[in-house]
Design brief:
33% strand, 223 residues, nine-stranded antiparallel sheet, alpha+beta, 32% helix, 6 helices
């Protein structure tokens, strides 16, 4: 297939895709809790109940030292009164970027109900004890991946990765509390959270919470 044919095939498939033809959730923006965390937790449970695959998967956007944006998908570890929790190596690209500019944005997309949640705020890194505790409650595979380390570094070959991964799996099984010094738990303390409910007629509902000195302010946004 030529490059032109490949481009045409891609565009044909892209234009065939449909969005929100059925199964959308319902959202009455006039009946919402005072704080965004409560609504987020409610929507998360509803997404899981609706059959959303991996509802805890989220995008994390950061910026590097030059102010250039970066984004990747990772997993939410918790959401509580302190904020939205995730973890990574402090030596990874995201870890280095957060050390330089400790602000980030999260994005959740739950297609099963046509919902999105956007979260923005300051990010802080937990201490070593809390970071160890975060890793301790995760799976053997998660520990093995953390022990493999060197995240975001250039890889010489897939064989090199296979050897390092095999050694990490063996250690994770033999030593379930193995320390990973670079593993770091992070928490995003939100100052803005937006809830988006898709509508088949494109009359989407957008509700934004903004933190003020007196608490959370709620406001509707044009779609």
């Amino acid at each position: 297939m030529s490059s032109d044919e490949q481009q045409q095939a891609f565009r044909a498939v892209l234009r065939e895709q449909r969005t929100w033809d059925s199964g959308l959730g319902r959202f009455e923006a006039g009946d919402v809790p005072d704080v965004p965390l409560v609504l987020f937790q409610r929507w998360f449970v509803e997404a899981a109940d609706a059959g959303q695959v991996e509802p805890h998967a989220m995008t994390l956007a950061t910026v590097d030292g030059a102010g250039r944006p970066d984004v990747r998908t990772l997993l939410l570890h918790d959401a509580d009164e302190h904020g939205w929790h995730f973890a990574s190596h402090a030596t990874s690209a995201k870890g280095r970027q957060l050390a330089v500019s400790p602000w980030a944005a999260l994005g959740f997309y739950w297609s099963a109900q046509g919902r999105q949640v956007r979260v923005r705020g300051a990010v802080s890194a937990a201490g070593s004890a809390e970071s160890r505790a975060d890793l301790a409650v995760r799976s053997t595979g998660a520990l093995a991946a953390a022990l493999t380390g060197r995240q975001s570094e250039v890889l010489g070959s897939t064989e090199e990765l296979a050897r390092a991964s095999q050694a990490a799996w063996e250690r994770a099984r033999a030593e379930p509390d193995a320390p990973v010094p670079t593993w770091t738990a992070y928490v995003l303390d939100a100052d803005e959270v937006e809830f988006f409910q898709g509508d088949a007629q494109r009359r989407h509902v957008r509700l934004r919470y903004r933190r003020t000195d007196s608490g959370w302010r709620r406001e509707l946004l044009w779609p």
